[in-house]
Write a sequence for this structure.
């Protein structure tokens, strides 16, 4: 008999960490709207001032991932406790030309970018004489080139140091070991790309090369990037800006990626109305556009290769974040580390099946009657939106 559910093949190798607690970093030049965007995303009040390097240490927060499925489950079960999935976001200080050599606040901030798993790259496309630009004029293509150049230079430095460290380690063995052909070819390929100002993520890499890079180095240009073009309110409403086609073309010729136009000015005015929903809806209707923040959050979450499953009951409805490709015991461990060790089986129904079959009832009777309530074992690969009940055995103390 074929296995039930989804015991799909192992996903292709990806750069970066395989974890459920991944972070997006908000990156860009000074005074492009990074901290203002961070505040809007997280509803916090990080300092926002009109001078470079206002943000010194990175601010960290989280923002809920908008999801109609989660809202449906909450409205159905009406439990006393609810918790959505969250996207973790870090606000990183502005970089300037020469940062990789220590200019501005330099290498400290590049290390902050190393510490995140994906990048929201904010680029300014609005004109405002009251908000200074670090290069005195608005030119997003120049700004994109500046940031990419600094990140490539930082990665090149990391690669060279890793190569030197490996050579030194081999020398200390007295010739007993040699550098592997895979290591040499991978490092040479990395150096060639980075010297040409080409991000590592733009290259074609084998699984073995990706695994080696993940093991030996934490490179900035392997991280997924979402480009955010900060427009004026007027441009955002009319959905036009002279720089957008040029930015799109630049992105496509530099490794690709998502481009999301938005407006801090627009989002801030909308946020000021958040306690008056009627006024907020009127504002949106008159503008004829929606907030871009939900799309940013969902796209960031997806680019980190994260998904979530639900647990739902009278006491709590909750979304649990896991890395896409996680097997059922790994998902159980997100709830409690011991659950993965004592995993017996998972009782699973997809959200789509549950919603279409439950007929407004909380329980699983209709789902079971339709044969959509599945029993899955250790090899089951959790799917986004699964509703899961885990059966856990008694943990053997010797296996802890």
């Amino acid at each position: 008999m074929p296995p039930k559910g989804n015991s799909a093949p192992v996903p292709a190798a990806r750069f970066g960490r395989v974890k459920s607690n991944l972070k997006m970093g908000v990156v860009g030049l000074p005074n492009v709207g990074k901290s203002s965007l961070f505040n809007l995303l997280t509803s916090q009040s990080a300092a926002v001032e009109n001078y470079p390097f206002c943000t010194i240490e990175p601010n960290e927060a989280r923002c809920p991932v908008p999801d109609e499925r989660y809202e449906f489950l909450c409205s159905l079960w009406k439990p006393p406790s609810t918790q959505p999935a969250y996207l973790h976001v870090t606000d990183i200080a502005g970089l300037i030309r020469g940062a990789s050599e220590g200019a501005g606040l330099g290498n400290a901030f590049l290390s902050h970018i190393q510490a995140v798993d994906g990048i929201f790259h904010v680029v300014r496309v609005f004109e405002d004489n009251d908000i200074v630009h670090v290069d005195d004029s608005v030119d997003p293509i120049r700004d994109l080139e500046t940031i990419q150049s600094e990140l490539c230079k930082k990665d090149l430095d990391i690669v060279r140091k890793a190569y030197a460290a490996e050579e030194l380690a081999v020398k200390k063995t007295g010739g007993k070991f040699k550098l592997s052909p895979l290591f040499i070819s991978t490092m040479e390929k990395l150096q060639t790309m980075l010297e040409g100002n080409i991000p590592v993520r733009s290259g074609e890499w084998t699984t073995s090369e990706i695994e080696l890079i993940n093991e030996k180095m934490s490179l900035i240009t392997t991280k997924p990037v979402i480009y955010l073009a900060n427009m004026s309110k007027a441009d955002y409403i009319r959905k036009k800006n002279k720089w957008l086609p040029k930015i799109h073309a630049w992105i496509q010729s530099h490794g690709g990626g998502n481009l999301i136009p938005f407006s801090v000015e627009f989002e801030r005015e909308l946020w000021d109305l958040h306690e008056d929903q009627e006024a907020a809806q009127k504002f949106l209707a008159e503008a004829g556009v929606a907030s871009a923040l939900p799309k940013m959050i969902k796209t960031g979450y997806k680019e980190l290769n994260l998904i979530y499953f639900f647990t739902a009951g009278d006491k709590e409805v909750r979304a649990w974040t896991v890395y896409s490709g996680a097997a059922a015991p790994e998902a159980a461990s997100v709830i409690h580390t011991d659950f993965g060790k004592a995993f017996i089986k998972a009782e699973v129904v997809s959200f789509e099946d549950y919603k279409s079959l439950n007929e407004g009832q909380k329980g699983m009777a209709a789902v079971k009657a339709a044969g959509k309530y599945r029993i899955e074992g250790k090899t089951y690969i959790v799917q986004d939106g699964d509703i899961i009940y885990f059966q856990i055995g008694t943990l053997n103390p010797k296996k802890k």
Observations:
- DSSP finds 15 helices and twelve strands in the chain.
- The chain has two domains: 23-55+92-302, 306-399.
